[in-house]
Amino acid sequence: MEQKKTVLIVEDEKNIVDIIRFNLQRTGYNTLEAYDGEAGLAMAREKKPDLILLDVMMPKMMGFDVCRALRAEGDNVPVIILTAREEEADKVLGLEIGADDYITKPFSMRELVALLARVKANIRRTTMLSAPAAEDNAMSAGGGITINTDSFQVRKNGVPIDLTQREYELLTFLASHPGKVFSRVDLMEQVWNYGYVGDDARTVDVTVRRLREKIEDNPAAPAYILTRRGVGYYFSAQA
Length: 239
Fold this sequence. Notes:
The chain has helices spanning 14-27, 37-47, 63-72, 88-96, 109-129, 165-175, 184-190, 201-215; strands at residues 6-10, 30-34, 51-55, 79-84, 101-105, 138-142, 145-148, 153-156, 159-161, 225-228, 232-235. By secondary structure, the protein is an alpha/beta fold.
C-alpha cells in the first residue's frame, strides 16, 4: 500500500486550519499543523512534508519569510500560498520568491475544490519527478526542449529544468499549441482553471517571466515563449 502523503498547514486561524485539515484527511492525506511562521519553518525542516500550505500574515514570522528560508536552504517542497482575495501583491510576491501556487481565502466550496486539486497535482508531480523518466514518452517541443508528460520532467538539450507546477503546466499548454497566441484571460481559464479576475492577470506575467528565466538562453530576448504585443503569449517551435 502506498504511504500517505503529508501536508503541513501553516495558518494562525484555527477555524481555517480545521476546515483544511478535515478536507485533506477525508481525501486521504496526513496533516501537520503549525499556528505561526517560526513553528511552521521548524516543522518543515524536521518533518519534511510533501507539501506546505502557507498563510501570508502570521505571528512571529511572515509566510513569505518561511518560503524564502526554505528555498535558500535548497528545499523545493511544493508551497501553496494562502492569501486574502483582494491582496493581488501577495499573489505576485509569492510566485516571485518561489511559491508554486496560491489559493485565495476565505474559502468557498469552489476554492476548497481548487485547493484539493492543487495539492494533488503538486504532490503527484514531485513524486513522479523522483522516479526515473521513460525518455520514449518525451514530447519534443522544438529547440532542444523536451517535455515528458508521464514523469512531468522538462529537459533542455538533455539537462533537467526545475519548474514549479504552474510553470510546467504553462509551458506544456503553450508548447502543445505552437504558434497560437493566448491572452492572459485565456491562460487564466485554461492553465489556472480560474474564472478571470482582473488582478490575477499579473500572475500570468510573473509566471511567464520566471519560466523564461529557466528555459531561455537570454530571457530578455526570448526564443521560446514570445509576446504578441497587445494580444498575449505564444510558443515558438522554431527556437
